[in-house]
Amino acid sequence: MQATANKVLKGTIKHISLGSVNAEVTLEINPGVEITAMVTTASVDKLQLSQGKEAYAIIQASQIMISVD
Known about the structure:
This protein has one helix and four strands, in the order βββαβ. By secondary structure, it is mostly beta strands. The chain has a domain at 7-49: CATH 2.40.50.100. It has a four-stranded antiparallel β-sheet with strand order 3-2-1-4. The protein is globular, with a radius of gyration of 13 Å. The model has no long low-confidence stretch (mean pLDDT 89).
């Protein structure tokens, strides 16, 4: 796979939490290291995502923000 994104991380789908419109997909990219993405439920169906399947987290962001009170 080739992509122009900044980071492409290969992992295994650990969990999918389906909502009515969106789904939360958690990838384990290394033992104990997880990344979670929000995608549409239509994308889950189209990509045939399921627990245990290999997938890629493609990250393209100019900045990441963290905030606390």
